[in-house]
UniProtKB/TrEMBL annotation:
This is D-2-hydroxyisocaproate dehydrogenase. It comes from Limosilactobacillus mucosae LM1. Residues 112-299 form the D-isomer specific 2-hydroxyacid dehydrogenase NAD-binding domain. The keyword Oxidoreductase applies. The keyword Transferase does not apply. InterPro entries: D-isomer_2_OHA_DH_cat_dom, D-isomer_DH_CS, D-isomer_DH_NAD-bd, D-LDH-like, NAD(P)-bd_dom_sf. Belongs to the D-isomer specific 2-hydroxyacid dehydrogenase family.
Length: 332
């Protein structure tokens, strides 16, 4: 079995090498993503895996893969927006993704940001570094996590992992989800969203970005939150109305925000040396606030997640190449 791994990142290589050794697979890793220019590299291979956000190119790419005898495209990631699913279907290519590679990775980043804000680490750090101010006063007193109520909106894979961690830390955990999962009962209490806005000291968002969730935290919702509450977004930036968030932070409607995603992040997150003119004004404004912490969509980025993305997609690739089925197949 020969597998070609497109768009290989350096951090994936040790996991890919180990997987190839364990499964006795001949694996070739290339840096290039899959597209019209690189599709011919797949000739002579039985299966491919990809990791990219850029389009895979024209329908000729799918036709060529099929003509090489390839039966699948296994994505080492969740999103499959870069795949032309119609072209894949027309060429009998099964597309798989890795929907859940490490919910715990994202959950831990959310909790870490909340703890950072709760204990005012950013504020103390800025005071010490910028003003050589080594003092503290009554405005900087913190709460302890076991005295907090945490409200999670969206309690799927990541929300559930988040609930478990907060519960283990002694917090009261409220969840709001359109679906009910009895497995969450030991960790959390299902409530309506209004209760979360009213009672939570930390609100953490874990829903997908859908027409029904886009902008679900706007001016009205921010006003309903406690003035001492922190808003954490580990899901998608557009769940929050960014200008309403900036206003709420300026007006003291909420205490702070932890964000791993921003609405306009695709233009600059993941890039190096972003030109000053290309850095959005809303990012600059948020980043300048000491009660805001922003990371560039890296909550997923742990060793466990990287290993699982490589292993799960590569296993799917050889299973389908051997005529088998995978539960990670995208149904379309
Ligand atoms: P999931 O599908 O397991 O869970 C999503 C949950 O949201 C489900 O339980 C669903 O019922 C619920 N939901 C949907 N609409 C809702 C609504 N209107 N109100 C309340 N709940 C609603 O997904 P997941 O694996 O937990 O991932 C959640 C999101 O996290 C993803 O969609 C993605 O946007 C984001 N994510 C971020 C990173 C990162 O690195 N920051 C990594 C992976 C995923």
């Amino acid at each position: 079995m020969k597998v070609l791994m497109y768009g290989t990142h350096p951090y994936e290589k040790p996991y890919a090498e180990k997987w190839a050794q364990q499964t006795q697979t001949e694996l070739k890793m290339v840096d290039e993503p899959l597209n019209d220019e690189t599709v011919d590299l797949a000739k002579g291979f039985d299966a491919i895996t990809v990791l990219q956000t850029a389009s895979m190119g024209s329908t000729a790419v799918y036709e060529k893969l099929a003509s090489f005898g390839i039966k699948q495209i296994s994505c080492r990631m969740v999103g499959v927006d870069m795949v032309d699913l119609d072209a894949a279907k027309a060429n009998h290519l099964t597309v798989t993704n890795v929907a859940s590679y490490s919910p715990r990775a994202i959950a831990e980043m959310g909790v870490a940001q909340a703890m950072y804000l709760l204990r005012r680490i950013g504020i103390f750090d800025a005071r010490m570094n910028q003003n050589h101010d080594f003092s503290w006063n009554e405005t900087l007193i913190s709460n302890e996590i076991y005295n907090c109520t945490v409200g999670l909106i969206g309690a799927g894979h990541i929300g559930t992992a988040t609930a478990q961690i907060y519960k283990a830390l002694g917090a009261r955990v409220l969840v709001n989800d359109i679906a009910y999962d009895p497995a969450l009962e030991p960790f959390a209490e299902y409530v309506d969203r209004e209760t979360i806005f009213k009672e939570a000291d930390i609100i953490s968002l874990h829903t997908p970005l859908l027409p029904s969730t886009r902008g679900m935290i706007g001016e009205k919702e921010l006003k309903k939150m406690k003035k001492t509450a922190y808003l954490i977004n580990m899901a998608r930036g557009a769940l929050i109305d960014t200008s309403a968030l900036i206003k709420a932070l300026k007006d003291g409607e909420i205490a702070g925000a932890g964000l791993d995603t921003l609405a306009d992040e695709t233009t600059f997150f993941g890039q190096t040396n972003v030109a000053e003119k290309d850095v959005p004004a809303d990012y600059k404004e948020l980043a300048a606030m000491p009660n805001v912490v922003i990371t560039p969509h890296v909550a997923f980025f742990t060793q466990t997640a990287a290993r699982n993305m490589v292993q799960i997609a590569s296993n799917d690739a050889i299973t389908i190449a051997n005529g088998g089925r995978s539960r990670n197949e995208i149904r379309y």
